[in-house]
Every structure is written in structure tokens, then in C-alpha cells.
Specification:
By secondary structure, the protein is α+β, with helices and mostly antiparallel strands. About 50% of the residues lie in helices and about 20% in strands. The longest helix is centred in the N-terminal third of the chain and has 48 residues. It catalyses: ATP + protein L-histidine = ADP + protein N-phospho-L-histidine.
Length: about 525
């Protein structure tokens, strides 16, 4: 069992499992002892009640005997009734059977010296024809006794008392005591064994930590979950969402209703939900969630004793701004590369001009320089004059140089018109830069002539951007999937894979209330002026 680092932070006391075992054993001992006491008291009452019923039944049997009624009428009742009483007492295991007159004068008694004496006890109810039972201390000591009338033609002619000494009742109860004790000991043993098993399981599940340690762990982990700047999701083995911290709720727009539901039905984007539902390890995968670009990592969370994982842990990092900045950086890098290439070409051209002058041909040098300047300046003037948004103009110039180096002709429509500040520069770079990159790659995959065309215009309340290439275009069956994260016609490359560029384009266009049409190799983006202006403000 691994030891928790919290052991060094909290003084070692009884663990939660040990405390629970001690508490359970105490409770079980009290309950079993109380049960035994209750059983003993109940047995005592039951024994007394059984003795009461027994003496009452025997007394009625003796009182109803014709021999007893005849003996009461005999000249010497004692001589007739004494053998009968002794026999009944012996056969029924009672301690005394006393037959007496209606006034309580004894005719029989186990102690012969008591014959002729007055009966000690209550007889008034029996004198009135009703039976009674009581506990009374007589000549033989405390006893449970019954007194019933002897009736002859409805007239009380005598009384019969049958009794069992309480000492005999106690002896019977003591005979039941070993059974009660054995039963209680077995119950205590079984309960203690069950408590020990529960304690052992709890010790394993809690890593033998105490309540204070568990409380401190919970406080620390809860503070970490709320303070960490990464989104965190915990999924069980069935893929149900068990926990989402504050950052995960913000990034994925989750609420409390998502907890306990399968991750695929918790309101996550479809592609992300399907990816997480598999439970497979993932490292730095890029996914889109609404307007955000998220980096996903997924790994197993611990393991059960049998080796099965407890679930999975998912971390989310927001790379929306980073991805946009990376796109802008790519554009700037491309622009820098184009400047480097142009500087290299300019140096070559300058050497050519100088060489022509050294050869004594200044007219040819002047013509060559003028032609090169017209070609370079023509593209710059056309782009800058048509595209008033400076960031987009720089992007187009950079992409044109990059395309030229790669053997692709990037043509900007002469009537292209993009007003300044109509869209955020970052979104323009995302939309146009990714479409041009895909178009250049598609043109390179096709036979010459390789060409990419860019056009832009304001049509009423809409800004229309169009990028077309000389490539084969998309299969109509793939148009619906073109803007899904992870879909691409090119092989995967890098940890993030492909299929991100067009997904980012679709995200940016939707963010500004627009739409995209695909016809073969031509992509047309429409963004309404009202939506764009609202995005800027």
C-alpha cells in the first residue's frame, strides 16, 4: 500500500478504519449485552408465567377431581386427601399441593406439622368462586402459587392451592442461561468478524488515513481543483463525468446537470465527446469547443487491486489566443521569408545591372531594372490599392512570395476590395491565411500551370472573400465534413495532426455570423457587415 505524503503533515493518530472498528466493536458489545440482558429478563418473565400457568392448571385439575370432593366430605379428610395431594405433587413436579376447608384450614401439606393450621396467603377470591395466582412467602419460602375453589353443585366446599417455590423457578432459569451466553458470544464473534472485514476494506480504500488527514486532503485537493488554471475532468470506468473543475466548466460551458452523465451526452462538442468516451490515452490533441481551441490530454486514473483502471483524468488547456498568435506569426514569418527571397532576388538583379554597366551597356541595364521594378511594384500596388486592411495586404504579399518560391502563381483580383477595420485583423489572418495555405498545397498537388486566385468584394451588407486554386477540388461527398476538426485530405503531421486549419476558418466565420460555400476548388466566405461591425465594437 502506497503511503500518502500527508503522513508528514499530520501527527499520526488512529486511522479512520481503526476508529470505525473500535466504534463498531463498542456498539456491538453494548447491543449484544443489552440483548442478553433483555433476553434474560424476558426468560425470567416467561419462566414465571409458565410456572403460573402450570400451578393454575394443576390446581384446577385437583379441584375438579371427584376424589377430592369426596375426601372433603369424609369423616377424616386428611387421611383421604393426603395421599392424593402427595401423588399429584410428585407427578407434576410441584412443591406443594394443599387442600383446605373453605376457611383455609389445611387438610394436606408437605410439612405434616402444618396440617390443621391456617393457610398463609390470599384466599378471598377463591372463597367467592374465582381462581387467583400470586407470589407469596409461605411456610416453604417464596413461591408462585394458585388458589382455586372446589365446587359441588355450584357451592364452594373447599379450596386447593398448588405452588412452586421461586427457588425452583430460578433453577430452571439458570438452566437456560448457558444457552443465552453461548448465543450472545456467537453473535458478538460474528459481528466482530464482520466489523473487522469492513475495517480492512475501509483501510485499503482510505490508504489507512485518519479523519483529520482525509479532511486535510479534501481541503487541499478542493483548493487545487478550484485554483488550477487548466481544465480538469474525471471520468469513471463507464465514461460518466464525475467531476469538472471551474476552468473546465468555463472552457466547455458545462453545468451541474452534466455530472453523472456519459461524457458523450454531457453537452460537449460531438468530436470531443466521442474522443473522451473511448478512454484511450491522448497527448496534446487539438480540439475545437465553440470559439475555443483546446489542447486535450487524457490518461488512466489509478487502478483497482485487480489492475483495472478506476477511470480517466482529462486536462484541458485553452490555446485559442496562442493558436491565433501562431497563425499571425506564421503570416509574419512568411512575410519575412518573402522579404528575404526578394532581397536575394534584388541582389541578383543589382549584380546583373552592375555587370551590364561594367560591360558598357547602360541602356540595357536601365531597361532591365525598369522591367523588374514594374513587375514587383505592380503586385504591391495592386494589393495595397485594393486591400485597404494593412494586415491582410501584408499577408497577401507574403503568401504571394511564398507561392512564387514554391512554383505557384498567386493572383489577386484587380477589383478586390477589403475595407479597413471591417473584421478583426486576427480573424482575417485566420480565414484568408488558412484558405490560401490549403489552396497553395492543393495547387502543388496538381499538374502545371499551378495557380491560386484571391478575390474580395463588398456586396450590399456582406463582405465576400473567394479563394480558388487549380487543384482537383473537394469531392462533393466530403464537403459536409471539410470543416470538422481532424478531417483532411493530407496525411497527419505533428502531435496535433491535420484538419485544424479549415476548422479554425469555420469557427471564425461562424463567430461573425457568416457562412462558407464550396464549389470544387473554390471557397467562398460571406460575412455580413452588421455582424462584422458588431464584432469589432
Amino acid at each position: 500500500m502506497s503511503r500518502s505524503p500527508m503522513r508528514s503533515l499530520v501527527p499520526r493518530r488512529w486511522s479512520l478504519a481503526t476508529r470505525l472498528l473500535a466504534l463498531q466493536l463498542t456498539i456491538i458489545t453494548v447491543v449484544v449485552s443489552g440483548s442478553l440482558l433483555g433476553a434474560y429478563v424476558q426468560a425470567d418473565h416467561a419462566t414465571l408465567d409458565a410456572a403460573r400457568q402450570k400451578v393454575l392448571g394443576v390446581a384446577w385439575s385437583v379441584a375438579d377431581s371427584p376424589a377430592v370432593r369426596a375426601g372433603l366430605a369424609a369423616p377424616d379428610p386428611t387421611a383421604v386427601l393426603l395421599p392424593v395431594a402427595d401423588a399429584v405433587a410428585h407427578d407434576t413436579a410441584t412443591d406443594f399441593v394443599v387442600v383446605m376447608t373453605r376457611d383455609g384450614i389445611r387438610y394436606t401439606h408437605p410439612d405434616r406439622r402444618q396440617i390443621g393450621g391456617h393457610f398463609l396467603g390470599t384466599i378471598d377470591q377463591a372463597q367467592r368462586g374465582r381462581a387467583l395466582t400470586e407470589t407469596f412467602t409461605g411456610t416453604l419460602g417464596p413461591s408462585m402459587r394458585a388458589v382455586v375453589p372446589v365446587l359441588d353443585g355450584g357451592r364452594v366446599v373447599g379450596l386447593v392451592s398448588v405452588g412452586i417455590k421461586l427457588q425452583s423457578v430460578a433453577r430452571t432459569l439458570r438452566g437456560q442461561l448457558p444457552t443465552l451466553l453461548v448465543t450472545g458470544a456467537l453473535a458478538l464473534l460474528v459481528a466482530a468478524a464482520g466489523s473487522w472485514l469492513v475495517s480492512r476494506w475501509l483501510r485499503r480504500e482510505t490508504h489507512d488515513l485518519g479523519p483529520a488527514e482525509l479532511a486535510r486532503l479534501f481541503e487541499f485537493y478542493d483548493a487545487v481543483l478550484h485554483a488550477v488554471r487548466e481544465g480538469l475532468l474525471l471520468l469513471d470506468r463507464e465514461g460518466r463525468l464525475l467531476l469538472a473543475n471551474d476552468e473546465a466548466n468555463r472552457l466547455l460551458d458545462l453545468d451541474d446537470a452534466a455530472l453523472g452523465r456519459p461524457v458523450g451526452a454531457a453537452g460537449l462538442p460531438t468530436a470531443l465527446g466521442q474522443a473522451l468516451a473511448t478512454g484511450q490515452p491522448r497527448t496534446d490533441e487539438i480540439h475545437l469547443a465553440g470559439d475555443r481551441v483546446l489542447v486535450i490530454n487524457q490518461a488512466p486514473a489509478g487502478a483497482r487491486p485487480d489492475g483495472a483502471p478506476l477511470g480517466t483524468v482529462v486536462t484541458l488547456r485553452d490555446h485559442t489566443d496562442l493558436q491565433a498568435l501562431a497563425g499571425e506569426l506564421d503570416s509574419v514569418r512568411g512575410f519575412a521569408e518573402s522579404l528575404r527571397a526578394q532581397a536575394h532576388e534584388a541582389a541578383n538583379r543589382l549584380h546583373t545591372v552592375l555587370s551590364l554597366i561594367e560591360l558598357g551597356r547602360p541602356e540595357q541595364a536601365l531597361d532591365f531594372a525598369a522591367q523588374e521594378l514594374a513587375v514587383a511594384q505592380g503586385l504591391t500596388d495592386r494589393v495595397v490599392g485594393a486591400v485597404r486592411e494593412p494586415v491582410l495586404a501584408a499577408l497577401l504579399l507574403g503568401k504571394a512570395s511564398e507561392a512564387s518560391e514554391r512554383g505557384v502563381d498567386l493572383a489577386v483580383s484587380p477589383d478586390a476590395d477589403v475595407p479597413e477595420a471591417l473584421l478583426p485583423a486576427r480573424d482575417l489572418v485566420t480565414i484568408v491565411g488558412n484558405l490560401l495555405d490549403n489552396a497553395i498545397d492543393a495547387a502543388l498537388a496538381a499538374p502545371p500551370p499551378r495557380r491560386v486566385e484571391f478575390a474580395a468584394a463588398m456586396r450590399g451588407d456582406e463582405l465576400v472573400l473567394r479563394v480558388a486554386d487549380s487543384g482537383p477540388g473537394l469531392d462533393p461527398a466530403d464537403v459536409a465534413r471539410a470543416f470538422e476538426r481532424g478531417w483532411s485530405t493530407k496525411p497527419a503531421a505533428g502531435p496535433a495532426g491535420r484538419g485544424l486549419g479549415l476548422a479554425l476558418v469555420g469557427q471564425a466565420v461562424r463567430r461573425h455570423g457568416g457562412d462558407i460555400d464550396i464549389e470544387g476548388s473554390a471557397f467562398t466566405v460571406r460575412v455580413r457587415r452588421t455582424a462584422a461591425i458588431g464584432a469589432v465594437t
